[in-house]
Specification:
binds zinc ion, 2 domains, binds 5'-O-[(R)-(carboxyoxy)(hydroxy)phosphoryl]adenosine, 45% helix
């Protein structure tokens, strides 16, 4: 019989402080009993981006309360849990230490198993929480910190097919928003401005187009937007809208082309791919989701996009990754240190999960 588990998940790798409780379901997938999140956007807004030291302090200020709230929402106490999971990286080291140390302390005090979760693994497994998906599948992770294409073969079994060589997709949205004076975080603001814009007005580059290895590059595109903006300055509202629309169209073309390349590599390495999963904050972009829906329809792929609050950073995905690992008998000891860098691919340097 499959054992049902209830796990607390803690996420503090960037600018969201989050705590959640998830319970595994007998038929597969998970049930979210509580999902508390506190965004630090207001703290960082004045700086136009995340300030690591401020982030760490803000996590300390709110994490205890958030955990208590999550337990209260779930109508559970620490004693009811089967394990305590925290994101141990990759991310901003100060924040990661806050979440990891808190999880270790709770696990020690309650004698519950502790799981050090790879934040990227948590994104990769979220579609199994929300949709009970089976392995394997292709994951497009597009967030503010990461842009990767990963073949997800099993828990702990990831093959990174490609990644960005410079900026992440969300980072490019944020930087374009900043240079156009739209504010932070930029993704939703660029998307909104693009609604009224002409995507054909600016002929922006589509970096990496046609390359067989499904890597990305967004820094040249971002620079091209800046050069166009400088060329036509001062910018009217219509100019900003057209720049945003043209930029977003270039990102979409790039994502679709890189996906095509990834499907080819997936096919060569693992056999035909049937499912595409999208995760990360950029998945909130409706124009991008529409383009991916079209692409999957044409390619005969099932598209799975978890609900947006589970695509962006959250505690439920950490709790779920904890459940997946605990179900396989995997957990970690108190020596597990925070990892600012932690590639998903087990072939990559420093990727090993440490002791199970
Ligand atoms: O996954 P996430 O919440 O945090 C991490 O970066 O891990 O992603 C945040 C990123 C930001 O760069 C934000 O600008 C971008 O996702 N984003 C969007 C949209 N909403 C959020 N990018 C494009 N269009 C959007 N609607
Ligand atoms: Zn993330």
């Amino acid at each position: 019989m499959v054992r049902l588990m209830r796990v607390l998940g803690i996420e503090t790798t960037c600018d969201e402080t989050a705590a959640a409780v998830v319970r595994s379901k007998p038929q597969g997938g998970g049930e979210i009993l509580a999902n508390e999140i506190m965004s630090q956007i207001a703290e960082h807004q004045a700086y136009g981006g995340v300030v690591p030291e401020l982030a760490a302090r803000a996590h300390i200020d709110v994490l205890d309360r958030l955990i208590q709230r999550a337990l209260d929402d779930a109508k559970l106490t620490l004693a009811d849990l089967d394990g305590i999971a925290a994101a141990a990286g990759p991310g901003l080291i100060g924040g990661v230490i806050v979440g990891l140390t808190t999880a270790k302390a709770l696990a020690l005090a309650t004698r519950k198993p502790f799981v050090a979760v790879n934040h990227l693994e948590a994104h990769a497994l979220t579609a199994r929480l929300s949709a009970g998906l089976d392995f394997p599948y292709l994951l497009l992770l597009v967030s503010g910190g990461h842009t990767q294409l990963v073949a997800v073969k099993g828990v702990g079994e990831y093959l990174r097919l490609g990644a960005t060589l410079d900026d992440a997709a969300g980072e490019a949205f944020d930087k374009v928003a900043k240079m156009l004076g739209l504010g932070y975080p930029g993704g939703p603001l660029v998307e909104r401005a693009a609604l009224k814009g002409n995507a054909l007005r600016f002929d922006l580059p589509r970096p990496m187009l046609g390359r067989p290895k499904p890597d990305f590059s967004f820094s040249g595109l971002k620079t091209a937007v800046r050069l166009e903006a400088e060329r036509i300055a001062p910018l009217s509202g219509a100019d900003v809208a057209d720049l945003c629309a043209s930029f977003q169209a270039a990102v979409i073309d790039t994502l679709v082309d890189r996906l095509r390349a990834a499907l080819r590599v997936f096919g060569e390495r693992l056999g035909a791919c049937h499912t595409l999963v999208v995760a990360g904050g950029v998945a909130a972009n409706a124009a991008i989701r529409r383009a991916l829906t079209r692409f999957c329809g044409e390619s005969g792929l099932r598209l799975v996009v978890p609900p947006i609050p589970l695509c962006t950073d959250n505690g439920a995905m950490i709790a779920w990754a904890g459940i997946e690992r605990l179900m396989l008998g995997l957990h970690d000891d108190m020596t597990f240190a925070a990892r600012p860098r932690w590639p998903l691919d087990s072939d990559a340097d420093g990727a090993h999960h440490g002791k199970a």
